[in-house]
Design a protein that fits this description.
about 375 residues, alpha/beta, nine-stranded mixed β-sheet, three-stranded antiparallel β-sheet, 16 helices, binds iron/sulfur cluster
Amino acid sequence: MPGLYLHIPFCKQACHYCDFHFSTSMGLKEQFVAALIQEMVLRRAYLPDPTAPLETIYFGGGTPSLLTEEELILIFDAIQANFTISPRAEITLEANPDDLTAAKLATLAASPINRLSIGLQSFHEPHLRLMNRAHSAHESSQAVRRAQAAGFENISVDLIYGVPAVSHDVWQADLASLFELAVPHVSAYALTIEPDTAFGRRLKKGTFAAPPDEFVAQQFEMLLAQLRSHGYEQYEISNFCQPGRESRHNSNYWRGVPYLGLGPSAHSFDGHSRQYAVANNPQYVAAVLERSEVPATFEQLSPLDQANEYLLTTLRTSRGCDLAYLRDVLGVDLLAERAAYLASLTAQGMATLEANVLCLTDAGKLLADHITLELFAEAPTTTSA
Ligand code: SF4
């Protein structure tokens, strides 16, 4: 069942680790909303079955909680005019704690949004200041409690671990604060230092150091142990939920379900190809409003690309990678071609292989990127006479 993603490319300030597309200038916000609505009209037939009801809608960013009540009404009116929304659709909005005032939550609760993904990242003040988050430690808990009081039960929170100078004791305290909130879904990410971020620039200058891999691995192990003991399932490497409370939108990404992405930098997938919209607000707004076109790069996926994408996404999930499907449907026979490597993974306790389904163990999850790269199928080399 298809999904709709809307990228809201504005933030109050730049977090020091973030390389998503956003602008801290709100100057183009009004024109952006007009362009987003116009893009819906232009691309309403993109999905393979444009009449199929949308099962999931996801407002990501950037900071979608910066949208005003009027802007949300305009956007939902446009979605309803251009698509059919399933009556049981999961409709998520990413929100930052500092935006979740009682008034904003009342607006959100009155809209079709039925799930909030709140970017807490930490409950620890020095940790939040180090990352240049716009909210305080107190606001982390307060935002979730306010959202619950406003009637939102379906809440996910984001946390970051593996941050320098954040000791295991602080991480343990963060997890204890998390469990007090009793939210059904948690996304927890290890800090990655991207080059085009404040942390990346400091790393290059030598004024910032990433923690050792072992330190990050220990915090990941603490996370797994604590979440499991509190009844959460790890259904993807970075995603945990109470039974039956998976993110339907993200699960569909990992299952290869088509989706339409709107807004600058948004990706779209129609089952065979991907499209990546320009990550530039002025260019996006001008192209859509003045020329009725969406500047984007287009990538036709070869069978090999599709096989590698299937491997990359499924190996991160608890369902694992069905190597028989990979062989029979996508034409890549790892069971035969990489039998020795698969055997070494299972012998070292990195993975299980049962009924042709490869699943990473906890030890394997720590090396998921490396194992995936090792297994990536390559195009056969051709030789010329
Ligand atoms: S982490 Fe979120 S709030 Fe911070 S800059 Fe990135 S998109 Fe904006």
